[in-house]
């Protein structure tokens, strides 16, 4: 009778009894799960087994076992053989089916291979497995399947390095992936986006996994990452460009000035984070400055004395005062002196008058004091007259040195305005000696008083109308009321033998020398705007000084500039230093700033005998006790000084409104004979001496 059609799969399980399955004459025998026999149709009884599925190479990832599969038709039995040994029958999993197209039986066998089984194999041999299928005709073997333990090392054998290249230059980023089984696949990323050479032909990935950029472009800047991966892991080596970031601002520093205007600053650093691997640095300023005003210390002042007290029983009376006008504050000094005075009472006021020996002693003392004062006055008069006679004799004897020194006729043109009126000198043989003829009809006047009186605004000179301070012609060295040295080189050589003058420049063209007496005069350096005015009586009578005036080269000396200070004038030396002057001299020189003290903190620097520089004057805050005073004009600074030496004006801007004048000078050939034309450009301070 016909059998029912078989199902898609028929499984045979181990059983103690005999199971008979009607499947095209196929029978399963108890105790033979993997050893199954089948009665094949006569048309296929002479065919060898044919493998439909053969086992393939597998990789064990971590501790997960792998499954090998083998499928054959027609086959009565299938076994697995690993590394030359048969796999135990209990480790096989068998499935049976029938091919619907041919009606032949199909056998499907799988086994699991664990990591421990593979690790038991030592030596150079690899772990392999193979299928063996049987039929009534014979046996057939499948291909070998190799089972390997997969891994991937963490460290790259060669890592990419940061590079900075020029535009259109070829760049090669090398990357050798770590060792692994199976071998790692490599890909490149730019800013975490995959680099695809097919999409951008400017990129090429070589066979040894290096990335080549044919022509570097600005758009190619970024973080390039070499990624290595296999079935186990995906380590990557990233070439990270870390851009810098600012730290927080520090607290403001204390004000630089103890009293009045100054500046304070705060800073930050590019360390949050620090730029790495070619990352960009922080943009902006690392230091900020701000103007500040420090409260000035207030020194204490005495109040008026109180009235004398009544005469006490001990014939004494007293009075007092307090340090309250003003009271000391902000670190100012306390009042100096006594706050309590006592005095003996007169005989009428004293309740207990004692006459006799005490009155006699008082009268004798008063007479002695009067006699001493009289004798002292007589001595002073005699000394003064003798000194005057000696000075007149000295001037008469030195007439050979004062040839050409004529008195200067000066008429005050307006009250408070000093306006000397020079006369034109006659033509003489000594044309280099410029003198002024005396005007006997005028009254000779000169500046009286000390420099301190000029700090009063009502008593200042008006220095713009006098001919001695008018702009000078750009000629040879100019000298008024003095005698030019016939050999300037000899003059410089003689001065340079002294220790202090060894640093003087030997440039005679930028130096002026002359000999002066009590009549005074003026020295100028042509084409520089620099002059020295010596008023009459500034040099004591009977004294004759050899005076020099020179402009220093900036590169020949080291002028210390603190903070944001800048040089605003030439560095001018006049001397010799240490000479005794009865009145201040006036040193005129150009400056190159807007002359607005609200925008600048302007200081006058003076070089000491030891060669160090010190601030001697803060313009706009002159003190009565200072021996210097500066009068600023639009382009000129006039320095009133009771001392000779080396001076310079420096300034520090207080805010953005401050302006410093610069001059742009271009030099070129007058004629050009070729196609090449050279131009020299200089950017310099806008003062005459720098241009010269």
Provide the CATH topology of one domain: Chondroitinase Ac, Chain A, domain 3
- Which geometry do the CA atoms define? elongated
Which radius of gyration do the C-alpha atoms yield? 55 Å
- The CATH level-2 architecture of one domain is identified as Sandwich
Task: Give the topology, please.
Blueprint: E1 9-10, E2 26-27, E3 37-38, E4 50-53, E5 58-60, E6 66-73, E7 77-82, E8 85-86, E9 93-98, E10 105-113, H1 115-119, E11 127-134, E12 139-141, E13 145-149, E14 151-152, E15 171-173, E16 180-181, E17 185-190, E18 193-194, E19 203-205, E20 211-213, E21 224-229, E22 236-239, E23 260-267, E24 287-294, E25 316-320, E26 340-344, H2 357-397, E27 479-480, H3 488-496, E28 511-516, E29 521-525, E30 530-534, E31 545-552, E32 566-567, E33 571-575, E34 585-590, E35 600-607, E36 613-618, E37 628-632, E38 636-641, E39 646-653, E40 662-668, E41 679-685, H4 688-691
Can you walk me through this structure?
The structure is a single chain. The protein is mainly β and 692 residues long. Among the domains are: 50-151, Immunoglobulin-like (Sandwich), CATH 2.60.40.10; 157-229, Immunoglobulins (Immunoglobulin-like), CATH 2.60.40.10; 511-668, Chondroitinase Ac, Chain A, domain 3. The protein is 9% helix and 29% strand. The chain is built from four helices and 41 strands. Strands 28, 31, 32, 33, 35, 36 and 39 form a seven-stranded antiparallel beta sheet that branches. Strands 5, 7, 8, 11, 12 and 13 form a six-stranded mixed beta sheet that branches. The longest helix is centred in the middle third of the chain and has 41 residues, at 357-397. It is elongated and about 170 Å long. Mean pLDDT is 76; it is low at 1-38, 391-468 and 470-478. It is found in: Cell membrane; Membrane. Residues 411-431 are annotated as: Disordered. Receptor for netrin required for axon guidance. Mediates axon repulsion of neuronal growth cones in the developing nervous system upon ligand binding. Residues 421-431 have a biased composition (Basic residues). It comes from Oryzias melastigma (Marine medaka).
């Amino acid at each position: 009778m016909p059998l029912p059609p078989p199902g898609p799969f028929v499984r045979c399980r181990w059983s103690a009894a005999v199971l008979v399955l009607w499947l095209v004459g196929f029978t399963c025998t108890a105790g033979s799960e993997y050893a199954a026999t089948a009665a094949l149709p006569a048309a296929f009884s002479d065919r060898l087994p044919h493998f439909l599925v053969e086992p393939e190479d597998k990789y064990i990832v971590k501790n997960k076992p792998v499954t090998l599969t083998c499928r054959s038709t027609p086959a009565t039995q299938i076994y697995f053989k690993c590394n030359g040994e048969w796999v135990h029958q209990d480790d096989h999993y068998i499935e049976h089916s029938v091919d619907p197209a041919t009606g032949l039986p199909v056998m499907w066998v799988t086994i699991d291979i664990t990591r421990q089984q593979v690790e038991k194999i030592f030596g150079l041999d690899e772990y392999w497995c193979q299928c063996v299928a049987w039929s009534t005709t014979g046996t057939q073997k499948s291909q070998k399947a190799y089972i390997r333990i997969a891994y991937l090392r963490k460290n790259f054998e060669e890592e990419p390095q940061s590079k900075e290249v020029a535009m259109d230059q070829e760049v090669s980023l090398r990357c050798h992936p770590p060792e692994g089984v199976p071998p790692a696949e490599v890909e490149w990323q730019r800013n975490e986006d995959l680099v695809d050479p097919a999409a951008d032909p400017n990129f090429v990935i070589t066979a040894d996994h290096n990335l080549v950029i044919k022509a570097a472009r600005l758009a190619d800047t970024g973080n390039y990452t070499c990624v290595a991966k296999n079935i186990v892991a995906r380590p990557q080596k990233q070439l990270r460009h870390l851009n810098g970031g600012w730290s927080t601002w520090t607290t403001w520093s204390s004000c630089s000035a103890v009293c009045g205007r100054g500046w304070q600053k705060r800073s930050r650093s590019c360390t949050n984070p620090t730029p790495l691997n070619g990352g960009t640095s922080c943009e902006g300023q690392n230091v900020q400055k701000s103007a500040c005003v420090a409260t000035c210390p207030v020194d204490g002042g005495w109040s008026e004395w109180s009235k004398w007290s009544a005469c006490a029983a001990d014939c004494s009376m007293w009075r007092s005062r307090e340090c309250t006008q003003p009271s000391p504050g902000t670190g100012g000094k306390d009042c100096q002196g006594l706050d309590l005075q006592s005095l003996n009472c007169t005989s009428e006021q004293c309740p207990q008058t004692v006459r006799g020996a005490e009155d006699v002693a008082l009268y004798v003392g008063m007479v002695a004091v009067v006699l001493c004062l009289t004798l002292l006055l007589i001595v002073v008069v005699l000394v003064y007259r003798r000194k005057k006679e000696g000075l007149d004799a000295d001037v008469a004897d030195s007439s050979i040195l004062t040839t050409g020194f004529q008195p200067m006729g000066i008429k005050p043109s307006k009250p408070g305005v000093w306006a000397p009126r020079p006369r034109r000198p006659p033509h003489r043989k000594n044309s280099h000696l410029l003198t002024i003829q005396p005007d006997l009809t005028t009254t000779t006047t000169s500046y009286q008083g000390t420099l301190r009186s000029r700090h009063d605004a009502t008593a200042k000179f008006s220095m713009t109308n006098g001919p001695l301070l008018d702009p000078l012609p750009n000629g040879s060295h100019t000298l008024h009321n003095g005698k030019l040295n016939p050999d300037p080189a000899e003059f410089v050589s003689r001065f340079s033998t002294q220790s202090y003058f060894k640093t003087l420049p030997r440039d005679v063209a930028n130096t002026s020398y002359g000999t002066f007496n009590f009549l005074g005069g003026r020295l100028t350096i042509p084409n520089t705007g620099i002059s020295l005015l010596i008023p009459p009586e500034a040099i004591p009578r009977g004294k004759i000084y050899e005076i020099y005036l020179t402009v220093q080269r900036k590169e020949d000396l080291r002028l210390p500039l603190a903070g944001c200070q800048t040089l605003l004038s030439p560095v001018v030396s006049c001397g010799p230093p240490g000479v005794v002057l009865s009145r201040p001299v006036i040193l005129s020189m150009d400056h190159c700033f807007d002359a607005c003290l609200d925008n600048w903190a302007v200081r006058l620097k003076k070089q000491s005998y030891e060669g160090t520089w010190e601030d001697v004057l803060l313009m706009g805050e002159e003190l009565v006790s200072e021996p210097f005073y500066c009068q600023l004009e639009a382009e000129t600074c006039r320095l009133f000084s009771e001392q000779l030496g080396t001076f310079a004006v420096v300034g520090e801007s207080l805010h953005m409104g401050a302006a410093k004048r610069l001059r742009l000078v271009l030099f070129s050939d007058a004629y050009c004979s070729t196609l090449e034309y050279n131009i020299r450009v200089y950017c310099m301070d806008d003062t005459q001496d720098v241009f010269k």
